[in-house]
Amino acid sequence: DARVTQTPRHKVTEMGQEVTMRCQPILGHNTVFWYRQTMMQGLELLAYFRNRAPLDDSGMPKDRFSAEMPDATLATLKIQPSEPRDSAVYFCASGLVGGEQPQHFGDGTRLSIL
Amino acid sequence: GNSVTQMEGPVTLSEEAFLTINCTYTATGYPSLFWYVQYPGEGLQLLLKATKADDKGSNKGFEATYRKETTSFHLEKGSVQVSDSAVYFCALSDHINFNKFYFGSGTKLNVKP
Fold this sequence. Notes:
Distance between the termini of chain A: 36 Å
Number of strands of chain A: 11
Order of helices and strands of chain A: EEEEEEEEEEE
Largest interface: A-B, 25 and 24 residues
Largest sheet of chain A: 7 strands, mixed
Shape of chain B: globular
Shape of chain A: globular
Structural class of chain B: mainly beta
Radius of gyration of chain B: 14 Å
Helix content of chain B: under 10%
Number of strands of chain B: 12
Mean pLDDT of chain A: 94
Number of helices of chain B: 0
Mean pLDDT of chain B: 94
Oligomer: heterodimer
Number of helices of chain A: 0
Largest sheet of chain B: 6 strands, mixed
Low-confidence stretches of chain A: none
Strand content of chain A: over 45%
Structural class of chain A: mainly beta
Low-confidence stretches of chain B: none
């Protein structure tokens, strides 16, 4: 089965450091989503892309977060500088255009900012 | 606007018991509806979906029927197993807004032997 691949699976770093999370969507998928999951807030949509173009990043703190798709096989989410409140599990999901199409999730990056 | 409301958990059942997890939604159009399952340390996995009113999605013994009149999509299983212990998320897809999904808060299911 094709899968969304996220790296790294775990990241521990100190406050103020830059963090880069990577996602390889399923080949052929043309929508990519970034989510953040915490116990308090649940699952939050940070940004999403269609055909590599950003459509909505209103869920993302603009001053420190950035999301890009340099090519169709790679999506990145960067935090600079990182803060302890950014500690969470970050998920990438991909899918095909169409309201009936499901999103397929990766296993996430568990981020801890000390 | 769009939103999904799920029953709060945790739900604790004995093995072979009947499961219902309630999900209701509000939507501006005619969304598709989904149930996802999340096991510890993993991402969300699609469990089933329904794309129009009265459709029934089913998979691995789980079922849910898209009820437009009650704006509901309740998840059911006739006989749960310990391996069904996980967190279950109900979601809707906004057909207009480029596949944007709206997720419920999740319901944790614990099944005891």
